[in-house]
Amino acid sequence: MIERAELVRWLKWQIEAGADEAIAEEAIDRFAATRPKAEAPSFSKAEAAPMPAASGAAAKAAYFDQGPVDQGPTPAPALQAPSIPPASAPPARPMAPALASRAATENDARERAGFAQSLDDLRAALDDFDGCPLKATATKLVFGDGNPKAPVMFVGEAPGEDEDRQGVPFVGVSGRLLDRMAGWIGLDRTTFYIANSIYWRPPGNRTPTPAEITACQPFLRRQIELVGPRILVLVGGAAASALLGRAEGIGKLRGRWHVYDPDGLAIPALAFYHPAYLLRSPGQKREAWRDLLTLQDRLRELGLARPSPGTH
Ligand code: URA
Question: Which residue's CA is the nearest one to ligand 1's atom 7?
Answer without folding.
Answer: 170
